[in-house]
Amino acid sequence: MKEYPRGPYNPLPVFPLKHALIDNGYEALARRVQAAMKNGVRVLIIDGFNGVQWSAFRAGLSSSLQHLGITAAWHAMEDCLKSPEAIREHLSPFLGGEDPLFGRLYPFGPDHLFDPEAVARLRTAVSFARSEAAGGLSIVSGCCAGLLELWDELWYLDIPKDILQEQARKRPVLNLGEPEQLAFGDFYKRSYFADWPMLNRLKRRLLPDIDLLIDAQNAAQPRALDGAMFRATLQELGESPFRVRPWFFPGPWGGQFMKGHMGLDPGQPNYAWSFEVIVPENGITLERDGIRLEFSFDFLMYSQHRRVLGEEAARQFVYEWPIRLDYLDTIDGGNLSTQCHPRPSYIRREFGETYTQDETYYIVNAKPDARVFIGVTDSCDPGQFKTALRESEERGVEVDIERYVHSEPSKPHDLFLIPNGTVHCSGRNNLVLEISATTYIFTFKIYDYLRKDLNGNLRPINVNRAFENIRFERRPAWVKEHLLAKPRLLREGPGWKEYVLMDRPEFFYNIHRLEFTRECAFATEDRGFAVNLVEGERVSVIAANGSSYDLAYLESMIIPAAARNIRLVNKGSRPCKLILVYVRKGIGQRFPWNSPAT
Questions:
Q1: In the chain, where are the structural domains located?
Q2: What kind of fold does domain 247-482 have according to CATH?
Q3: Which residues does the chain have with pLDDT short of 50?
Q4: Which one is the CATH code of 15-237: 2.60.40, 3.40.50, 3.30.70, 2.40.128?
Q5: CB atoms inside a 10 Å sphere around CB 382
Q6: Which tens digits make up the pLDDT trace of 535-553?
Q7: What predicted TM-score, i.e. pTM, was given to this entire model?
Q8: Beta carbons within 10 angstroms of residue 486's beta carbon
């Protein structure tokens, strides 16, 4: 904390809610039910994402309803699930067998996990309840309750996936249809490849009809927002600069800079990652009168993807925000694992992803001895390299990784390009802003220095998969020519300059840097941007609709395409540098989707 003092970074950003109030607690929910019943509501469907504490929620709402003299007939959607054995058999082709990390993305919604006869019986009961005289109330609750399609009012309980993971490390969180909690690695793999894709499809389908959105991460104090106002807020977010809530995690190679600068928990041994913009797992936090409600970022993409990404990019990526920003902190830590990412054809064939994890390292801070490992050495023999790695994995023999993997010195504001198949890792004493494709778990670790994770287990190594993807032609001369960014001035004006840092056919996104002293402006030109203030103290980001959001040093932000014209005002005393990342025009139309796709 003394060496890396607290900076202006805010780890808990919020977006102000202007036109609605956030309801707080079960009493407010019960009063809403009471008012709805006066308007003829007989059937309430309460759907929600995996990880909701359904027993606690049902007990809390039931108790508050009873205080108002309302007794409801409750039905649990999980009673309609098929047997755990049938669900496991159905999902097994997508869960990778004995592979501890990887599977294939499940392509359907959750319908196949439910007994159709049981669902039909419940649907019939709900239909009868809707036709009865006013005054009665039936509530169907549980994951996928929206499959019944018959409701007078629909609620949805949401939990961002990073919070879900955090809770799964502390308490039982069951995968859909599983009677007991799986080990965390198995829980995450099943969630990533099966549960989350199927539940997301249903969530997207239900969004236009949701009457009440509920933040369910605190089961004792749920917070709720009217569905129509929620959709109006998504519309506002679709044209306004905003920050998502980042999340932070320690690791075996983690450093100490983020802990001090970002004011994180000093009780943690280190912080390895800050997930700044990782849309499948981040949440967006709304605030009104000191009360906060958080929802999953993917809701915004389901509602506003064309306005957030821009029409052209949305035709290719649809509901996915494709650009990831995260920090890798190795300052006073260690080297990352030596690794590579899959080639486009491999990730499509093996994992069902539509694009691969091409990434870059932007060096935000570094000590004088810092290096980035990238490409292989001139003397690297693939066969000898693989043999050495196999011996290490099987017999615990250390590998002289610098014999096989090339490295380059790193300093602040360097940019290293890491297209798929490139052997790479950050060395110790870097703070890396990793700018990457959002496909985010497909890292094939080659060598991890025989380190154990924070639970005392060796991390899985993926030598065979890595060697099916490594591009061994990327040796020192090629790396220096093609993978070390050479900034090019694009345009300038009084007190500002814009540089192109990366514009290469191997990547579907470009990286620019705006440098300015007091003010500058740019037009989105129907492009959505991920941005980060890599130098300076604080800037105001002002959109065409008049919305203004401050961005401090090292903070990340999304600027939707519909924000149109952006004005940047330096609110500090030092010049600013702002990284701009956006999808290249013409990707998938004039230019290949993931070139070179070999």
A1: 15-237, 247-482, 488-583
A2: Jelly Rolls (2.60.120)
A3: 597-598
A4: 3.40.50
A5: 12
A6: 999 999 999 999 999 999 9
A7: 0.95
A8: 10
